[in-house]
Amino acid sequence: MKSIRTIVLALLFTLPASIFAQKIVIEPENIVLEVGESKKITAYVEKDGKKLDTPVRLFSRARKSLSIDADLVMKAFKPGSFDVIAIAAGVRSDLKVTVNFPPIQEIKIDAIPNKIYAGTPITLKYEVIDKAGLTRENAQVEFSSKNESIATINSFGIINTVKPGKVSITAKIEGVVNTVNLNVVKNPITRIELTADGNQARTGDVFHFSAKALDAKGRTVDDAPIYYSFYGVSDNVSQSASGLIKQDGRFVADEAGTYTVTASCGVASASKTLKISPREVTRKIEMVGHGSVNDRHTSDFWVWEGVDGRDYAVTGTWGADGTAFFWDVTDPANITKIDSVKVDARTVNDVKISEDGTICVISREGASNRKNGLVIIDVKNPRDVEIISRFDENLTGGVHNVFIYEDHVYALSGGQKYYIINIEDPKNPYAVSKFELDTPGHSIHDVWVVDGIAYSSNWSDGVQLVDVGNGIAGGSVKNPKQFASYAYPNNANHAAFPYRSKTGKFYVIGGDEIFPYGLNTGKGGVNMAGGYLHVIDFTDLDNPEEIARFEVPYAGSHNYWIEDDILYVAFYNGGVRVVDLSGELMGDLRKQGREIAWIIPNDGNGYTANAPFTWGAQLYKGHIFYSDWNSGLWSAKLEPEKPKETKIQSK
Fold this sequence. Notes:
The chain contains one helix and 56 strands. A five-stranded mixed beta sheet has the order 45-46-47-48-52, with no helix packed on it. A four-stranded mixed beta sheet has the order 2-10-9-6, with no helix packed on it. Strands 12-19-18-15 form a four-stranded mixed beta sheet, with no helix packed on it. A hairpin with a 7-residue loop joins strand 47 (533-537) and strand 48 (545-550). Residues 2-20 have low confidence and may be disordered.
C-alpha cells in the first residue's frame, strides 16, 4: 500500500476532534503555473487567527506532472489541473493547482502512402505538439478536404477515398495549419483470400487470421490496407457475443457462440465462421486452515521449507508495533504460531526468505528514530529466530518492499529507488549499487527478481526491466542496467510479475493499486479497492504491448503469484482469484471464463470482523496460502484439474 496515504489517513482517524479547529493556509491561494515553472509555496497552520510553527507538507497526486519538494518548491512538468494534499499534524487541506496549456506549435502528420486505392479508408496519424515540446492529448483538430468528390475526412481523422484523383487534406487547430496531398489511384483489388489456423475453439483461445488482396489476374496486392472486423451470436440469448480483434489478424472470443470474422479492403471482402465453446476451467476450492491475527493488521507473508524439512511461514504487521510472526504450516489445516520478533517500527510491510531457507529479511516503516531500514534474521530454527543485523544506510525514508536473490537484498528506499545490498555475510551487509529513474516526480513501489532481471513497479513510470546479472544488457548487481519498460495510462503500477508462456510469449503482468473510496485504516474499518491486472507482452522488448486484462468488479488487485500457467492473485475485498493463463493471452480474461476459482476469507473474529481485505497469495506444495489484512494467514486447496478440452481445431 502507499505508505504516505495510509499513514495520513490513520492520523486523521485517531486525532482528537479539537485539532480540527486549526486550518492550513496556503499562499498564494490560487496557484497557477506554466509548464517548466517552479514556485515556492508558503504553507502554515493557523488557529484562532494566529500562525503556528507546525510544519506543513504538500503532496502531489500526480508527481510525474507536478512535483513538490521538502522545501515546498512546486515544479510543473505537464499541463492540467492537479490535486495537492496539505498535511500538518493531522490537519488536512486539499487544493487544486492549475498548469496552463502552452500554445500549439505544430501538427505533425506521419508519412502517408504514395498511392491510396480508391474505395479504401485510411486513418491520418498525427500529433499536436505545443511550444513546451509536449504532445497535446485529445486535441480538437479540425479536418477538411479540398475536394470531397475524391476523398472525405471526418473529425476522427479517418479518410474515405471515393475515386481516383489528387486532393489536399488540411488539419487545423488554434491557427496552426498543416496540409498533406493524397494521390488516389484506381483500385485493382477484386477479391480477398482469408485463412485461419482453425475454425473452432474455446473462449479465450486466440485465432490467427491471414488475408491477401488479389487483383483480377490473381496477383497479390501487397500494399492493400486490409481491415478486420467480426460479428458474433452468443449461445446465451441474454448476452452479447463480445470479443476482440486486432488489425494484424488476431481474434479472441469472450462468449460461447458463433462468430464471423471478415477481412475487407474497400468493396472486396472475405469471411470465415467460427464455433466457440465455453472454456470450462472452473474447479472447486476449499478453505483448509487459518492462523488468526485479530489484534492488528497483517501485511505480506512468505512460505518456505526450513532446513529441518518442515514448512514455515512468516507474516508482517501493518500500522502496529513492528512485530513479525513465524508459523509452522507443515500441516496446512493446523497453522500454528511458533515465534515472533519485534523491531522499532509501526509497520513491517514486507517479509522475504532466502533461497536456502536460512535468512529472513523484514522491512521497517515508522521507526521512532526514523532509521527505517531492514532487519536480517536467522531462521535456521524458526521456533527460536534471532536478529543477526540491521541495515539502515540510505534507507531512512522507509523500506516498503524487499526481495532476496542470490545473496543480495533489493530494498526500496523512501519510495523513490532501490538499493542492492550484499548479505553473503549477513552480520555485515553492505550496499553495492542502486537503481533510480531520473524522470520528474519518479516513485517506486515494489521490486521482484527472476533469472537476473529485476522487475520494478514505478507507479506512473510503469514496469521497469533491469539487468542485474542476466546478461541481456550487460548488467550486474554492481552495475544494474535498465533495458525495457512499459507505462500504462492510469499511473498506478503497483506490482509486476514475469511469466514465460509455453507458447513462447514473454509476458509481464502489472497490477494496479487504487483506493477510489478512500482507505479506513482503523479497527472496524471496511474497505473497497479498485484497479486490475494488465498483461503486457514483452516478447519484443523494444515494442511491448498491453494485450490483456483481468479485472474483478468493485475490487482491486494487490500481490500475486504465477506457477504452471495459473495465476493466484489477491484482490483485496474480492479475496483470492485463481486464473487460467494457458495458451496465448488476449482480451478480457475474466469475460472469457478463465477464472478457475475464488475464495474470500471471512472471519467473524477478525481485527475488523467479516471484512476481507486479502493482501497476497502464494502456491506452496499444492496449497494456496494467502494473508488477509484483517484476519491473518490462511490456506486453501484447489481440486485437481479436469481433463483438458481440445483447443483450436483445424479443418
